[in-house]
Amino acid sequence: MNHVRQLIGGTWTEGGSGRTLTVFDPSTGAPVSTVPVSSDADVTAAVRTARHTAPGWAATSPGDRAAALRAAAADVERATGELAALMHAEMGKPAGEAADSIAAGVGTLRQYAELGPVHRGRALAGDDSAIDLMAYGPRGVVAVITPWNDPVAVACGLLGAALVTGNTVVHKPSERTPATGHRLAELLAPHFPDGVLSLVNGDGPVGAALAASEVDVVAHVGSTATGRSIAAACAETGAKALLENGGSDPLIVDAGVDPAWAAAQAATGAFANSGQICVAVERIYVHRDVADAFLTALADEATAWTARIGPLVDTRLRDGVHAQVSTAIEAGARPLAGGTIPDGPGAFYPATVLAGCTDEMSVMRDETFGPVAPVMVVASFEEALKRAADSPYGLAATVLTPSMGHAQRAWRELPAGTVKVNAVFGGAPGGAAHPRRGSGQGFGYGPELLDEMTATKAVHIEAPPSGW
Ligand code: NAD
């Protein structure tokens, strides 16, 4: 059993709230981790230590900070097997996929180690006798609040960018993957002076206490509801809210595509990581010309995916996913695959295909975060585009089409941070996007995250008057 502790000012201790959380293996239902939850006083102490440590860390050279990050990345890489086993035990991701996502996290740490020292300000064209600059500096103390669905990679991005730019950090990992977060902190923290990276543990109330504390930035990756409450807390304190939140990404399947290929794309988008990806395909609009063949192929894909996907993170999420599916079926959706809770231990849920879905159904409108592909047949590309755009979210969208004109319209017109054409996943390194609507605000990744983690100062310097 993993026992999770907090780190404040370089010292590992038990969280002091008196509450304990237990995490259960979603494959077997067996307990895997216990978490003594941090108290409000622990959160305050962590933030105070981070504040106290901030000026010293800000004064170190970017090169030294990058060297520390690079060394930390090497330690995380060496611990890949161990971290992957923790992830698998706590949130069910198959170990091989978990290792891939840890490799992505290590890559991100290394990327920020390279980019940090070359992140720079500007010299301005002022008077010849003066010096005018826009200089970047760290914002101060950054609260990093992360989810469970990709716990190492997401944390590495925010922690790496915050630390290399000279901020101190208090991290609160998800209560569903606390031992994974704990081990990551054990690997990272020794590379930085005491108090530069602290760790507090627990669930929503601990995150809320951290978000309401005297920090300069709250960087949150998680659900839209949480993001909104963090934005409200930041409005009270004046901290900057950086939010990467939920999505309900549409997939448009246009006339003229190969239905079998489109079904394979749709299945990858909807079922990978058991649908627990922020940019998973959450709703599908298929042109009537290809709908029958597409639906038949998608149902076959679902059967194949069910045999290889891991469980959902826990039965709480599974209950939510199944409630959306059941409500849709009651309202007239037709299950072509899956849709029932299997017998046996754990939180498994089959890859599910629902035909005949409508805009009003929660499974089309809200985020599902499970292996569910709800499908609506449309009469035209125009109709698909209109329905895809009509969403309270704006994270990402995909269009499968042989038409260059439709591809152009899709990326220009869809109100989402990322638009992909003819591939549900993919994109060049260095890409970064602004999520729209309920999906968040700010750059949560990519080189631009360094801008978010720093504040710009305009500087004007004149020579002292002659004769002094
Ligand atoms: P969540 O918001 O419930 O939890 C995320 C973190 O926020 C956890 O550490 C949690 O303890 C904390 N938290 C919960 N309530 C809080 C509160 N009131 N104040 C402060 N902190 C609080 O989200 P989750 O269920 O862990 O993660 C799944 C969600 O994350 C999905 O909606 C998914 O789309 C989203 N996500 C988004 C991205 C992205 O890049 N946009 C990436 C991964 C996951």
Automatic annotation (TrEMBL):
CDD domains: ALDH (cd07078). Keywords: Oxidoreductase. Coiled coil: none annotated. The keyword Kinase does not apply. SUPFAM superfamilies: ALDH-like. PROSITE patterns: ALDEHYDE_DEHYDR_CYS. This is Succinate-semialdehyde dehydrogenase/glutarate-semialdehyde dehydrogenase. The keyword Oxidoreductase applies. Its EC number is 1.2.1.16, 1.2.1.20, 1.2.1.79. InterPro entries: Ald_DH/histidinol_DH, Ald_DH_C, Ald_DH_CS_CYS, Ald_DH_N, Aldehyde_DH_dom. It is an enzyme of class 1 (oxidoreductase). Residues 12-459 form the Aldehyde dehydrogenase domain. It comes from Catenuloplanes atrovinosus. GO terms for molecular function: glutarate-semialdehyde dehydrogenase (NADP+) activity; succinate-semialdehyde dehydrogenase (NADP+) activity.
